[in-house]
Amino acid sequence: MSRPQREVVFVDGVRTPFGKAKGQYAETRADDLVIKSIRELMRRNPSLPPERVDEVAIAATTQIGDQGLTLGRTAALLAGLPQSVPGYSIDRMCAGAMTAVTSTASGIAFGAYDVAIAGGVEHMGRHPMGEGVDPNPRILSERIVNPDALVMGKTAENLHDRYPTITKQRVDAYAVRSQQKTKAAYDDGKIQPDLVPVATRSTDAGWGLATIDEPMRPETTLESLAALKTPFRSHGNVTAGNAAGINDGATAALLADEETARELGLPVKMRLVTYAFVGVEPEVMGAGPIPATEKALRLAGLTIDDIGAFEVNEAFAVQVLAFLEHYGIADDDPRVNPYGGAIAMGHPLASSGVRLMNQLARAFEERPEVRYGLTTMCIGIGMGGTVIWENPHWTLRQAQDGAGTTDSTGDDK
Q: Where does the record place the Thiolase C-terminal domain (predicted)?
């Protein structure tokens, strides 16, 4: 029996403000961050009956302690969803939330689900990356990977070696722009709609309220970055200033079949076109977005010239610039990360994929002339992931413009 593939749409996404490790969330549980995100997602979409949620997929890189125990299921229960709603945990390191989205989206496209919640959480202050992990010694003794592959900062230095034109000055300049764009986005009220405030508790300071991303450093200058140490290589290029930090935070997104979204009166912010994950040399994991994007474009029947908006995760500035250089895109192209990125906002590993999607959805809303955009990430242990999305506002614009917008060949004017 043949099954028609259904259209998958991104309905909504929320996130907590991101924190510094040992900062505003030092005494807040990781699971409480994702529970708060799920509750806010449901609150913002009151036309969705909770029992219509078919799955909850929540990612975490370090699945231990308050980030363990089938987090998707326990978070769903604690968020107040009915006992009939199942859930599960997922791990693809930095692309955890991205994989939660693509996994549940695949189920929607196939017809297994109508509505799903996907997201991620990482409390790196409580659970540093790799805590409790016991890697098989053969992975090093049999030279399956170089020891550098297990230290993300060293892989970034290796990427500098692969791209000698990406200098320390270029990555620092990119990092300064990330801080500036993030501040401008906050000043213009572009980030706040994505955020759910989180009540915090500190033994010393008492109660507080997290309302903005704690890692931001808008005062950053080229001079201040030039003075930072390069901890991964003597006289190297990678510093704490041109890379994302060690952060805490959670995200959650609502996905649906488009017909179901229309039936329930839910918004349609993006349509999923396709996605791709690929493996690369673990020692240069930052190169992952390049072949992942090549594969996704091939699957979609598109070229890079068809993409009008880019959200590239800023694990390291060099990784973003390698992607841009490969595709012939300028370092300061306004289509790329227009609201800033992880260098300023933070990168709580498994949660970041949905942040990228939130920001791409905003770019689509503000730029209806753009039809396609993508979210892409490098992934630890040598992978890359890319998701291509279609702008529903473009489709609406085409419908409103009508037949008069095409020439005799049918091409858009």
A: 268-390
The CA distance from 277 to 119, in Å, is: 17
Cα separation, 123 vs 65, in Å, equals: 11
242 in a structural domain: yes
The candidate with the shortest Cα–Cα distance to 238, out of 316, 312, 324, 322, is 316
218 contacts: CB under 8 Å, gap ≥ 6: 179, 180, 182, 183, 344
* Catalytic annotation, pick one of 123, 127, 160, 347: 347
**347 annotated active-site:** yes
pLDDT digits (tens, 9 = 90+) for 236-293: 999 999 999 999 999 999 999 999 999 999 999 999 999 999 999 999 999 999 999 9
Token pair 């999607």 in the structure block, residue: 357
Helix count (H) and strand count (E) of the chain?
13, 12
Q: Would 279 be classed as within a structural domain?
A: yes
Choose, from 123, 127, 160, 378, the residue flagged as catalytic: 378
Within-domain flag for 135:
no
Instruction: Using 70 as the pLDDT threshold, list the residues of the chain that sit under it.
Output: 1-2, 402-413
pTM of the model: 0.95
Which of 94, 123, 127, 393 does the annotation list as catalytic?
94
127 catalytically annotated: no
**For position 203, which CATH number holds?**
3.40.47.10
CA angle 386–391–394, rounded 5-degree value: 150
In a domain, 404, yes or no: no
- The residue among 237, 221, 261, 222 whose CA lies nearest residue 108 is 261
Predicted local confidence at residue 240, as pLDDT: 98
Q: Is 94 a residue of the active site?
A: yes
